[in-house]
Amino acid sequence: MSNIARYLLGLGLMLYVFALAFFMQSNLSVNWDVSWDLLVTRRVMLGGTYTKDFFDLNPPLIFYEYMPVIFLEHVLAISEAIALQLYVFFLSCVSLFLCTVLMQGIFLKKDIWIKYGFFFSILFIFLILPGNDFGQREHLLLIFTLPYFLTVVSRLRGNGISGRLAVATGLFAAAGFCIKPYFLIPFILVELYYLFFTRRLLSWLRPEVAAIIVFFIPYIISVFIFYPDYLFTVIPIAKRFYYDGFSDSWATVFFSPVILFCYFSIIIYLFQYKNTEYSALKSVMAVSMTGFLLAHILQRTSWTYHIYPSYAMALLMSMFFLVIFIKKGKNIFLLSSYFAVLLIFTIFQIDSLYQTGVNYKKNNVPLIAFLKEYGEHHSVYFIGASSREIFPAINDANVQYASRFLHLFWMPGIVKNQIKYLNSPFYQNYKRDENFLTKMLAEDINTKKPDYILVDNKDLKPFYALIHFKYLPYLGQNADFKAAFKPYHYFTTIEKYMNSTDQKKWDLYFFPNKNAIHLYTRHGCAVVLTGTGNVKRVYVLIHNKWASKNNKIFYTDMLLTPEALKLVAGQFGLIRRDIGNAPVLDQIITRSIFYPLYKFDVYRRDAKTTERVVYV
Q1: Is the bond leading into 309 cis (omega within 30 degrees of zero)?
Q2: Which 3 state secondary structure label does DSSP give 382?
Q3: Sheet of 379-383: strands edge to edge?
Q4: Higher pLDDT, 354 or 333
């Protein structure tokens, strides 16, 4: 193939990947964390500071890095989502350019197709792999730092690198490594590997490392000068509360499918590591992936964006190994098996992330419509611990958000650890911080006077370990919050459940109390309503056994619609399905067997109490 034909083919493939990424992101919402970070960025641009205008757990660098998105949004009069895409596309192009320059000294001229394969693998993990985590901090981390890793590879191969290129890659990498303290781990590990390989104590005296240090030190000093409240208020409180509430089990952290794939790539590396022309590239990728993996493990969460850098680097390694295997003509059976595992897992992972994002955007439509109808030209406040139930609906609905908090990050840890901390010597500090945060919440309501407050009222809330917990009774114990909330009255309820066609497989029973229940269901699965009034307690039978965990039977409380109340009025035992009652019966079953995507009790300031309930 001629050079012109090869370049045209490469250009066509690049344009196709960018077009595919644009199409995918057009069907997704802006990630909830990114949407909040963009809101905080706007407040920073207006002179806002931590604790006074926002209470965020991220160091300030990320807000400066998102400023171009706000600039593009206003100058080009485009949506937040489009502005974010253009910005990330631009950063990806800069990173790809630097990587391409560095790859000239890494790949042999005869291995032009290996270089092409590596280039398009990078393009793929930058633009397609992130899915609904597009623009997240970890996504930007990989875009910013990959040229630095290739700079290290090039030096290990003995290539000369111009000072300007080294400084450019160093400053670019610093913008990634300094986003979070955890992100310095891969940098430190790669530098230790470089020290080990070169056997020179002063091996770190290189232009790219100097650029990172020159960026890092003034940045840290500026945080001390301009954001002392972040260092001395936010961080201590976050350390006491955040990971107690949101951390996963170690089994989940160490053995999720994506993490197992990372282990798999390390095993392949260990079997394939030899002193070849590409051993430096293999080793730096393996070490950097290990660093990303440690950063993920130390945060002890299984969120997809935390895993993205390690998974992306593992995938880049695996794609590189695949091309090498093909070049060397490895055993066709082993090659086919390796290719099948890589292809199937990657397609499944991307499809899973994409479909999750598509469904998330679709399910948010009713909430956004509600906010637009009642929140336009008004301000709103959310009380809940799940950020994905608040953003990007706030920004998409273009309503004013009166809170300093992304979510009530301290509440899950408090609820799960009340007994643990009761007799602890740190109990007084713990309660002091809780009161401090609750007073901030009350202060927001008092000063901003939001027109609507939406309170998460799901029976089983995310991050609460299946504990039945209600926000308002708990927060109402604080006198400041109780006084601030006094002008608000119940207005309506808005909730959203998954769409399903499984309801016909379930029976519906009604009994005045649980002790009267003696049944063996026809289908083996049933929903059982108990109680009087318009609020019923709901139990679920699966294969004729109560749904439970640790010998504790699950239940939820459900506020029935007027139509549902008519359905069960005068009934006892099995409620038989017919053409007339099927829609209402299916609605009750759906609300019983599926976890609500969101359920908010809406309170309006100085409004009369109503009994209107919105089901969407």
Answers
A1: no
A2: strand
A3: 400-401, 379-383, 452-456, 598-605, 488-496, 612-615
A4: 354
Q: Give start and end residues of each alpha helix (H) in 404-477.
A: 411-416, 418-422, 427-448, 471-475
DSSP state of 55: B
Token couple for 588: 């009750």
Comparing 127 with 505, the larger pLDDT belongs to 127
- Nearest partner of 63 among 77, 32, 42, judged by Cα: 42
What confidence tens digit (pLDDT) does each residue in 191-206 have? 999 999 898 888 889 9
Q: What angle, 0 to 180 degrees and rounded to 10, lies between the N-to-C axes of helices 80-103 and 3-26? A: 150
d(CA 80, CA 90): 15
- Residue 512 to residue 413: CA distance in whole angstroms: 36
51 is written with which tokens? 């604790």
Q: Which residues pair with 612 in a beta bridge?
A: 492
Q: Which two tokens stand for residue 299?
A: 């945060």
Cα radius of gyration (the chain): 27
| pLDDT tens string 409-460 | 999 988 877 766 666 666 677 788 889 999 999 999 999 999 999 999 988 7
In angstroms, rounded to a whole number, what is the distance separating the alpha carbons of residues 441 and 405? 8
d(CA 419, CA 423): 8
d(CA 531, CA 514): 8
543 contact partners, CB below 8 Å, separation of at least 6: 524, 525
Instruction: Give residue 37's identity as a one-letter amino acid code.
Output: D
As given in the structure block, the two tokens for residue 184 are 């310095």
Distance between CA 236 and CA 261 in Å, rounded?
A: 35
